[in-house]
Design brief:
Rossmann fold, 2 domains, five-stranded parallel sheet, 8 helices, 5 strands
C-alpha cells in the first residue's frame, strides 16, 4: 500500500498533475484493483501513452515516418525503438538480415538504422539487398567498427551517417531528425 502511495506521489510531481486527481484514497480503494484510483491511474497512463504515440508524418505524403532497426543485440533494438517511438516515429525492429529483407519487401521505410555485424549475413551485403528493394530508403549504420573501416566498403550505398557504438541517445535523435527532416 505504501508503495502505491509513493508511486502516485511520484507521478503527481513528475508529470505536474494535481494530487486531487488521485486523492482521497482509502486503504480499501488501494487494495481493490477495480477501485476509482486504479481506473483513474489506468486512464491517465493510457492517455499519456497515446500522446507519446502521436506519429511524425511526412509533410509531402502524409504518411507516418517509418524506421527499421536491424541489430542482433536485443537491448539496442529495444532502446532505439523506445527512444525513436517517443520522438514520434513508427519503428519496427528485426534481429536478422532475413527478417530485414522480409520487412522491407512488405513495408515502405523512410530510414533503416542497421548494424553491419549481424549473425546470419554480412551486414553490407544485407544493405545492398535492402537498397535493391527500396532504392530511395535512407541508411544509417550503427557499428562497433570505426568510420574509417566501414566507409570504403559502403561508398556505393549512399550511407547518410555512420554512428560508432557506443552512442548517445541525443546523438541518434539529432541525426534521425536531420535525416528525416
Amino acid at each position: 500500500m505504501i508503495n502505491i502511495i509513493v508511486f502516485l506521489g511520484y507521478i503527481t510531481r513528475k508529470w505536474g498533475i494535481s494530487p486531487s486527481f488521485f486523492y482521497p484514497v482509502s486503504p480499501t480503494e488501494i487494495q481493490n484493483s477495480n477501485s476509482i484510483i486504479f481506473n483513474k491511474l489506468k486512464s491517465f497512463l493510457w492517455g499519456a501513452e497515446m500522446a507519446r504515440r502521436l506519429l511524425i508524418v511526412n509533410k509531402e505524403t502524409g504518411v507516418s515516418m517509418k524506421i527499421l532497426i536491424v541489430d542482433d543485440d536485443k537491448l539496442i533494438r529495444w532502446s532505439l525503438k523506445e527512444m525513436l517511438s517517443q520522438e514520434g516515429y513508427d519503428v519496427d525492429t528485426v534481429a536478422t538480415a532475413a527478417e530485414a529483407l522480409t520487412h522491407v519487401e512488405g513495408t515502405n521505410y523512410h530510414l533503416i538504422c542497421a548494424d553491419i555485424d549481424i549473425e546470419d549475413e554480412n551486414g553490407i551485403e544485407m544493405l545492398k539487398k535492402l537498397k535493391m528493394v527500396q532504392p530511395e530508403v535512407k541508411i544509417i549504420i550503427l557499428s562497433a567498427y570505426s568510420r574509417n573501416q566501414i566507409e570504403p566498403q559502403v561508398e556505393e550505398l549512399s550511407i547518410l551517417s555512420i554512428i560508432e557504438k557506443p552512442f548517445q541517445s541525443e546523438q541518434i535523435k539529432g541525426i534521425v531528425r536531420d535525416v528525416l527532416g
